[in-house]
Amino acid sequence: MANKIKLPEWIEGYGAVTPYAGLWGGPYDAAKPQAKRPPRRASEPKRQKLYEDLDSLLDELDLHDGMTVSFHHHLRNGDFVLNEVMLALQKRGLKNLRIAPSSLFPCHGALVPLLEDGTITDLHTDYMSGPLADAVSEGKLKHPAVMTSHGGRPRAILEGDLPIDIAFIAAPGADVWGNLNGVSGPSACGSLGYAHADAQCAACVVAVTDHLEEYPLVPTEIPQHLVDYVLKVERIGDPRGIVSGTTQITKDPIGLKIARDALKVLAASQLLKDGLSFQTGAGGISLAVAKELEGYMQEHRITGSFASGGITGSMVQMMEKGLFRAIYDVQCFDLEAVRSYRENANHMGMSGDLYANPHNKGAVVNNLDIVILGATEMDEDFNVNVTTGSGGRIMGGSGGHADTAAGARLTVIVSKLVSARIPLIKDRVTTVTTPGESVDVLVTDRGIAVNPLRKDLWAALEAAGLPLYTMAELKAKGEALTGRPSSVASTERIVAVVEYRDGTVIDVVRKIAPQKP
Amino acid sequence: MANKIKLPEWIEGYGAVTPYAGLWGGPYDAAKPQAKRPPRRASEPKRQKLYEDLDSLLDELDLHDGMTVSFHHHLRNGDFVLNEVMLALQKRGLKNLRIAPSSLFPCHGALVPLLEDGTITDLHTDYMSGPLADAVSEGKLKHPAVMTSHGGRPRAILEGDLPIDIAFIAAPGADVWGNLNGVSGPSACGSLGYAHADAQCAACVVAVTDHLEEYPLVPTEIPQHLVDYVLKVERIGDPRGIVSGTTQITKDPIGLKIARDALKVLAASQLLKDGLSFQTGAGGISLAVAKELEGYMQEHRITGSFASGGITGSMVQMMEKGLFRAIYDVQCFDLEAVRSYRENANHMGMSGDLYANPHNKGAVVNNLDIVILGATEMDEDFNVNVTTGSGGRIMGGSGGHADTAAGARLTVIVSKLVSARIPLIKDRVTTVTTPGESVDVLVTDRGIAVNPLRKDLWAALEAAGLPLYTMAELKAKGEALTGRPSSVASTERIVAVVEYRDGTVIDVVRKIAPQKP
Fold first, then answer.
1. Staple A397 to which of A127, A182, A402, A429, CB 3.0 to 4.6 Å?
2. What is the pLDDT of residues B128-187, one digit of tens each?
3. Which residue of B has its CA nearest to A37?
4. Positive or negative torsion for Cα B93, B95, B97, B101
5. Strand partners, A308
6. Which residues contact A420 (CB under 8 A, 6 or more apart)?
7. pTM
8. CA gap A505, A500 in Å, rounded
9. What residue ranges define each of the domains in chain A, with the CATH number in brackets?
10. Nearest to A346 among B35, B218, B227 (CB)
């Protein structure tokens, strides 16, 4: 699969391209990690860390054109911090900044003018949707955005590929000496998993909080010895956008049928037994698979080992019913997850490094039996696109998609074969987010396909009487319903480089063609 | 004080000497930390980590002459791991090894022959007592031992001054993927604080356990992504030596008088108020001071912030009575501390880095109001020796002594003026462990001395009617009881270099003269 994608050797504004070389084939230089890593900085003993005004704090910091500032996305679409900091930096006339948020949401649309005026010229993220993603697709960012995965980001930070000058860490709970957590205060978001690498490695770490507690903060997730400054602001986010009250299982009968068939795949795979580990996204069909699994585990009295990833109330319920002994939580999706993370010792936080970094000594994704994932597009090689829409516009990114697919014993994609009159399976995916060699099964409403690399699995599913097709057959079924989709109109200009989790380049995203009037 | 100690510019087997330059005066090169730091190592995905036999594991490891192997001391005088590993390396004929245990106890006397035969030629530690310390004093180690503090050790590891090839981490609880804790199993020792820097930075990390639990281990203190191998052995230690059942307050009336006077000093210092933070060692007099403080805080309805350091049941009781809101625990001294650490979220673990590294962004010692410490010797400059006995023989080391003294607002030394017919106060301490400029008060059974640097404190204690003397006066009192002590007979050969917590050299220890027959 590696050799099918044509990549330039050099990308202006990105540099030399090391092409994707297989799931575990990328270069790994044991001697490199620390070389480029940004220096630690000693604090003067007893120096006060607390500031109550962003501008006074910025006066203290070593700000310069071209620097990299990082953010985490645990406040999701309710985040105030990224916009406020960047607008203040714009006001100071800083230029050519690189921002490195772990994800970007529609609320960050306020930053589009900063792309246009050259305040922000570089962007490194794992996921983006909304006006800022549109602006990148339209070529408004000077240099190509780098899009990596939730495991690729801590890898890049820890290995020095992404040196951070200042990390701004939104902290729902903090004390004046910089102990931080995500479970206190009005903006509680749960685990702060994606912020750990930034806290460990950034030259300067600024916590931004709207809720100070007495020293020392209990519990502490990110401790004081990693934090230079604490900025107290009025509000770090809008709780309505931070976590949803509850996450919803799909009610669509087609989605529910896919979920039932996905469960049959899991059952036939022989992985549904004591000690099972499981991850699913927070999408409606994925949650429906979790619900099916819950019923199956109860019926067969199976006790699982752990559930992992971004956590929803569904997973919490399964742990509380004794179906999983533990949860590894990198990010809480709803209030039930936040509550459980706060209360239950078996609901453990994990950093992005522990979750999914391919270059550490054993990430949690490597211990996964089953992961259930979605897809925007697939192709006959089982490649998955969750980065761009079929029009070529950026509307997502890997998040943990590529990481869990590579780590899990069984990677299952669940999707309708046709959505909004667009077929799932294309000649070639518009953008490769997750390489097909890490994907085992596709379950659609009109049949199931097994990756030819997994002959054992094909045999097991066939023996179970499941409706198996080749990808070519499923593709033809889809096209019979919709007609062959027209190819995407794009220009030559590269607006984003898609890095695989190991830092190699797996694909590029090109500027979308101007809309016809 | 810095210029009073004559240090060579170069020490054979150690290298160039950067002399101590004041509490916060040592060199700090922000760009240096990562440069020499040992590389991380990626694990093959899904590689099994578990070995059940030390020799099979050693066959897998990259063993070579001159390498550095590290250990932690949470199993204290009950530790089996250091001896077993080193004897196995000796058997394989390895030479010129550097060992870097965070402390050494009498149980490690079995390693003396390895000094004699050249298996071990270098030693880096924070504390040592027993036959191995004697052997170093007698010149049996080829190169000078480096003796640092509990904060200096993680600093050295994180900054690359002490690169570790293999860290062997004794783990009372573990799972097969290398999640580790100190609270499970028959060898439970509590916090694993001193092992964190090793786990983060060693090129190879081997967990050694006698208690495997189901994956994932709950709670986990050191996570799997830092651990390369898990070695399951029969026993990692002797519980009788790991923690004492309970730690005992002195019953000696002289010790109790010192404790009462120390409390008067604390009260006069104006630091005994809400929000108070406090640390004390586990010695009998220090524990008596804690008991006095407990009574005072109850009587005056004072609620403290935190107690820190190595933790005893005394501190746990004070937290459980509501006198401290939290505990920062780097090491549990007794079973009560282990129990509390396991059960109580407010009893937080801390790494040696968080505890006391002078070059991070704010260690817990910097937040301490009061620390109570012991002393083997002092001098008129308030320098403290807890490294060597008055005969010049190594029988201890800083541990957290120099760290807490530098960090705390008020550093109080409690000691009898004369012990076993030897006066506490000398012309010059045999070895400087903790520089006098970080020591505020000495409380003895025959009077109190205040460091002239703390005029404010002298005035407060004088106003409180406490029996104040100069160090010269106390020294004369001691000598009136014992006569002037004879000077220590030592040779020219340097057997240990005492590093201050910032990596500068504060003193050296010379080989003791042969005993007269």
1. A127
2. 999 999 999 999 999 999 999 999 999 999 988 999 999 999 999 999 999 999 999 999
3. B34
4. positive
5. A279, A328
6. none
7. 0.96
8. 6
9. 53-242 (3.40.1080.10), 253-488 (3.40.1080.10)
10. B218
